[in-house]
Every structure is written in C-alpha cells, then in structure tokens.
Amino acid sequence: LCLCGIVGNLLNIVILTHHGFAKTTNILLTSLSVSDLVFSFTQSMGRLWSVVDRFDRNLASTINSVYVVYIRAWNQAALMVTIYQVMVIALERLLAVCVPLQVSRIVTPLRMKSLIASVYLVLTALVVPCHLMYSIEWVSHRNNVTVAIFHPTQFYIDNSVAINFYVAAVLSNVRSSVPLTTVSVCSLVILIRLSTSSKHLDRMSSSSRHVSRRIREVKSVRMLLAVCFVPLVFVLLPTTTFEAFISFSPETDQLSCRFKIVVMYVSNLLYQVSSSSNFVIYVTMNAKFAKTYRELFRWNRKLSKP
Predict the structure, then answer these.
(1) Rounded mean pLDDT of 180-206?
(2) Which end of the chain, N or C, is less surrounded by CB atoms within 10 Å?
(3) Are 83 and 234 within 8 A, CB to CB?
(4) Is residue 171 scored above 70 in pLDDT?
(5) Residues in contact with 286: Cβ distance below 8 Å, sequence separation at least 6, in sequence order
(6) Which of 244 and 153 is assigned the larger pLDDT?
(7) Which membrane topology term applies here (predicted)?
(8) DSSP letter string over 176-229?
(9) CA nearest neighbour of 282 among 270, 268, 294, 298
(10) Where along the chain do its domains lie?
(11) What is the mean pLDDT of residues 188-203?
C-alpha cells in the first residue's frame, strides 16, 4: 500500500503539474498529492523495521529507533496537512455550490497558495513537541554490534504531564474532531445542492452549451466530493472513534497494550488506504486526468521502443 501511495501520488503530481496552476482546484490537488506522498514515504519507513527484523534484529532496532526519533513526527505532520487540505477542499467546494458567481473572486490562486502555505507551516509547528520527546543512544551489544536505542529526553521527562495532555487532548482534537465536523457538514450541504442541480439538469436540453458546462462542473464536484469522502470514512471517523474510546472509556487504564497496538496498526492501514486512493479517483472520475495519463503512458511506451 505504501508503494502504491508513493507511485500513485508521484503520477498525480506529474499530471496535475502538466495541467498548470491557473485553477485553484489544481493547486489544492497537487498540494494534497505532495502531503500524501510524504505520508506514504514516511509510513513505509515506519514499517521497514518489521521487514528487516526477519533478517537482522539489531539493524531492525536501529531503524525503528531512527524512525521514532527523527521521522514519526513528520509522518504525523503530513497526515494532519492532508486532513486539513481535504477540509479546505470541502470549504472551497461549499463556496462554489452556494455562491458560484462570487467564488472566483473570493478564492484566487494567490490566496489559495497562501492558505496552503499557512496550513503547512502551522500544522508542522504544532508537532514540534513530538520532535523533542525522544532521543537516540548508541549502545554496544554482543559481538561488538552497536545498536541505536530510543529513550525519553530529559525535556520530556520534566514536562511529561503537559506534553501528554497536549498530545492527547489538543493535538488529537485538532487532527480529528475539528476536520471531522467541518468536512461532514460541508459534504452534506454539497451533496444536497448537487442532488438538486442534477435533477434540474435532467429536465433541461443536453444540447445547450450552458448545460454541457454545468454537467462538467457537476462531474468535477462529484470527484472532489469523493476526494473528501474517502478521508472522512477511512481517516476521520475511525480516528475520532478510536481516540474517543481510548480517552473516555471507563476502563482506559485496563486496556491492554496489545489492544492499543492493534488499534494503531488498523488506523495506519486505513490512513494509507486513504492516501493511496486519490489516483484511482482521478483516473475513474476525471476524463481530462485520465486522458493525460493515457497520453503520458503512450509517450513512455514510444520512447522505450527501439
């Protein structure tokens, strides 16, 4: 799945970049592909140790320690950036269906780029405490093998109560509850307006140029709604449910470590499914994207021929 996410999002970036950035939608989808690519890559680094562990346990321990100390916080930042960009897509589409005549004046390419840059900066800054929680210590094992072991930093030990509260209460709600509510409400309103528009178009003549343009707009909205729906189902709902259960269950202290690990693995699997799905959505629901992909594939095949 991580490999599919890396390859799929690389293709997304190539094709969307080829289409240019005149439209705010292209800017958003390209940026979304970048954050999904970073998430998929860092996620693969997080699972690399389990593969290496079958051959070399010491090396696997070192890889896992390096991931926990240096990479895991970036993985969480990429996930949050992806979630909030989906929220931006939902809000932008809500404006498009509610005030279609004013949306091009409100949402300009420059404003969209500024908003996306702000999302990256703010959410990356929010995970800074996670970078300060662990450090690496190199220890010598049997047979003169040096292994990296991660352990809590003195900063984390001194401020563990505050940092744990920040991660469990603040960061988790920023990652789950806020975007879940926003994306759900926006998607519901968009779905209602989309249903109304589709019924209205069915009663009109399809030969009209205006109707043809409206049909293309409806198809575009459907695709973006699918882009919002997948993270809503595979990321926001399970994340919020799992975190609420673990946080508010009366038997929280008695929950086994194994159960929490299973929840974490299931969550990571769902996150990766979401990050890997956009390429399929674009190819199946956007004729222009699919056409560019076929042309790119055909061009590569011609180059490979002697």
Answers:
(1) 75
(2) C
(3) no
(4) yes
(5) 219, 220, 223
(6) 153
(7) Multi-pass membrane protein
(8) THHHHHHHHHHHHHHHHHHHHHHHHHHTS-TTSHHHHHHHHHHHHHHHHHHHHH
(9) 294
(10) 2-298
(11) 73
Residues 6+ apart with CB under 8 A from 57: none
Are 221 and 97 in contact by the 8 Å Cβ rule? The answer is: yes
Q: Residue 169 corresponds to which amino acid?
A: A
Which ranges of 67-100 would DSSP assign to H, the alpha helix?
Answer: 72-98
CATH code, 2-298? 1.20.1070.10
Total residues found in the chain within this entry: 306
- CA–chain centroid gap for 64, Å, is 22
For residue range 115-133, what is the model confidence (pLDDT) as tens digits? Answer: 999 999 999 999 998 888 9
Q: Do residues 246 and 255 touch, judged by C-beta distance below 8 A?
A: yes
User: 180: which 2 tokens?
Assistant: 């879940």
What residues contact residue 26 under an 8 Å CB cut-off, 6+ apart?
Answer: 16, 19, 20
